[in-house]
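Thread: quick sanity check before group meeting

JM: Hey all, I'm pulling together slides for Thursday and realized we never actually wrote out the predicted structure for the chain we discussed last week. Dropping the sequence here so it's in one place. If anyone has concerns about the input, flag it before I start.
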Amino acid sequence: MRGGQRSVLLLLILVVAAIVLAMLRNTGAGSTMQGAALAAIAPVRSALTGLASGAAAALTDAQQFNDLRAENEALRDEVVQLRSAAAGVQATRRENEALRAALDYQRQNTEFTLLTARVAGRDSVDVLDTLIIDRGAMDGVRVGMAVIANGNLAGRVLTVTTRSADVLPIHSRQSAVNAVAQGEDGVADGIVEGDDAGGLLLTRIEPDAPLAIGDLVVTSGLGGGFPRGLPVGRVISVFASPENVFREAAVEPFVRAERVDVVQVVLERAPGSS
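JM (edit): ok, ran it. Output follows.
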């Protein structure tokens, strides 16, 4: 017989016994039988009482567990929300700092007409790894214009729509900018190109051109498009190969496109500036 059926049968027996005792309550035999019955069922009553107490405790523990789990889930959600809010505050603070720096640069460099733009996204689907900015043809942006960040060359405008533009970062393999390395012994002309490691190479340097580690690399202004003197980076190594008559230099860029939130498009050189 299963446990559930035994419990039902025991309950029926107790009910019948209670009825019989009630009928014999006022007789001597009834009192004797009542005492004997109570003594007989005392262990059963104790067991049932224990079972009831255990069941109540189990229900209480289960409810407390459910309450703790719900509270834990609520706290976890709150932590996620707080982290998201903190990240948003940090991003806003970083963008505000970049905007203030861009405004200060524009005030201090009046020889350029600059247009401040926010980086709205990044397109890394192809090898170009372009930046998408929130300014376009309606703001005067044109293909080929130089783009700077914190006063340093970040890239050039690749394509333009009415309200946005794609910027080709200077470290892209498709980028090439005429530049010079400026050192204590003179300047060395070359072309800055992106390499496979996200850095820069100054190529096509004449064998006898003065060049040393630490030289400042800036745009030369040759070839049109870019004004002269925009900082690009610093020479960190110089090397040559027997197969190439020209020397090359590795250049550490001043701008990392993945860290840029605000840029400025060089619309034109201000009238009267050299």
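AS: nice. The chain has two domains: 1-108, 113-269. The chain has a mean pLDDT of 77.
JM: adding both to the slides.
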